[in-house]
Amino acid sequence: MIQTAPASRLFNGEAATLAHVLAHRLVDAGEKPWILTATGRFTYRDIDRLAGRLANGLIRLGVGRGDTVLLMLNNCIEFIALWCALAKIGAIEVPVNCHYKGRLLSHLVNDSGARVIIADSEFFPRLSEVSNAFSALSTVVIYGAAPEPRSGALLGAAHLVPYAEILTDNEQFAAFSPAPWDQLAVMYTSGTTGPSKGVIVTHGHAFEYARGVIDMLDIRPSDVYYAPLPLFHIAGQWAVVYAVAIAGATAVLPDTFSPARFWSTCRQHKATCSFLLGAMANLLYRQPPASDDADNTLERVLIVPLVPEVEDFKQRFGVLVSTTWGGTEMNCPTRSGFELPNARTCGRVDNDLYEVRIVDENDNELPPGVAGEAVVRPRKPWIVMAGYWRHPEWTVQAWRNLWLHTGDMLMADAEGNLYFVDRTKDAIRRRGENISSMEVEQEINAHPDVLEAAVIPVAAEVTEQEVMAIVVPKPGCNPAPEALIAFLNDRLPYFMVPRYLEFASELPKTPTGKIQKYALRERGITAKTWDRIQAAVPVKK
Fold it and tell me: Are residues 219 and 106 part of one domain?
């Protein structure tokens, strides 16, 4: 059983809300830096004052308790202040993926029911393109370096408002005092397996996500936490900004993830801990080795999921590593600690807070060693999603048989370690065998000429599916399909060796580095796809 850290239990019961955390920090650490940027430092008090000014401006704009407000902003201090301002009002934050456009963007805007969006000026053209499709939006607040719009101008049926008009001079605001069951946000999932869904997030849900990361990284008040993730994503907002506030630590706010700049930024700010998605850790690991790789300030890194070379990663960069498994809907029910049992685990269940079962298609529990869908139940109220926004039918389907169905295939071993196998939609059924796309990807990525790869199912001629891999070579490399198959023949069972290969310069991804496999599945086989069977290249049986 995983034991949670008592130090992170400061905000118990009804105090597990953003409002209580900020109020506490203003008393005990008001002048301490909460956020560091390339241009300055911002204390807890600085951001609270800015949040008060913005809360007064939003109230004047007509925003009230329970209203949804869209934030489509790049990483900036104003994003954090607006998040706090909306919480002060009791309004509901709806972060927008900054890469959304077209119908995907208009769907999210309309589905949220928001009347107000605050958007960076660089996204104004995208909003303009779909403005005629907006059903409820009445106000667009434009923020950024571009010339601000004339107040009262129109975007479709919505009025344009300069950011300066909501930035009042009054820093004082009588904040709403929420409870853990009050709604804080609607977080739209990143859409790696289909259209985005709005997850209803309570204060308790967001708090527990952030508090859990404190345990996973052993975050202390003295820590400087650097994780180059976008604030519109839960990992950027809760696992970093919110976690350091609960711990009383300091966070570094980056713009975007850059493998080339990562270590220099860590050294610049003396960062001691970080959170890396597996794709980010993989790119860091695949950078050319340098003599000073271990000469950095990082001590602890949370990598989700682990890279197969995690032990080499730890030694090369001189860090401890832990991992977890989770998602927007179900939070993070597992912890590994820094003593990793192996390079494939995603931790053990935190039995104080969650129940997790591995089940078959009829929700019957499966024994250790057998992969199935992971289903979750909380032991404490309000720490997983309250449902899907405006889609009760999706909520009922997700919570069938009184368990939250995650859509993730996991497997448990006899010692209670859990292993991520695949997304249920990414699992491939070929000739009676279930194939993990992630396992095939790991072997392809081990080829010295490969930077990264995505493996997807495509329809077979008769029944079931075939394996297709989209491969991104390393710069300057041009691996032959036949050579890659020969490499995989020695590393994979015959039925897992891809039939189809396609080489690409890049893979479609979310801003947090997750490969958007649904886009690859929809595209499927193309004119550029190489067919192993047509080329008469055999596999070893």
Answer: no
Amino acid (1-letter code) at residue 400: R
At 166, which amino acid appears? Answer: I
- Read off the amino acid at residue 340: L
What are the φ and ψ backbone dihedral angles of 262, each rounded to 5 degrees?
-55, -50
User: Could you report how far apart the first and last alpha carbons of the chain are, in Å?
Assistant: 42
Cβ distance 234 to 99 under 8 Å?
A: no
Taking residue 23's Cβ as centre, other Cβ atoms within 10 Å add up to 14
Q: What is the pLDDT of residues 142-176, one digit of tens each?
A: 998 765 666 667 888 899 999 999 999 999 999 99
| Total number of domains constituting the chain | 3
In a domain, 5, yes or no: no
Place of tokens 């953003």: 18
**Sheet strands (E) in 3-67:** 33-36, 41-43
Residue 1 pLDDT grade (very low, low, confident, very high; cuts 50, 70, 90):
very low
- Collapsing DSSP to helix, strand or coil, 83 comes out as helix
**In 3D, which of 329, 285, 328 has the Cα closest to residue 303?**
285
Same domain, residue pair 267 and 385: yes
Q: Does residue 272 have a pLDDT over 60?
A: yes
> Is-above-0.90 flag for pTM?
no
The least confident of 196-200, 219-223, 265-269, 511-515 is: 511-515
Q: Dihedral of the CA atoms 141, 210, 196, 378 (nearest 10)?
A: -140
Is 390 inside any structural domain? yes
- pLDDT tens profile 492-507: 888 899 999 999 999 9
d(CA 356, CA 124): 44
- Domain limits for position 401: 203-423
Instruction: Supply the CATH number for residue 501's domain.
Output: 3.30.300.30
Instruction: For residue 365, give the DSSP letter.
Output: B
Task: Please tell me whether residues 55 and 164 are part of one structural domain.
Answer: yes
What's the pLDDT band for 183 if we cut at 50, 70, 90? very high
| Angle of CA points 59, 232, 451, to nearest 5° | 170
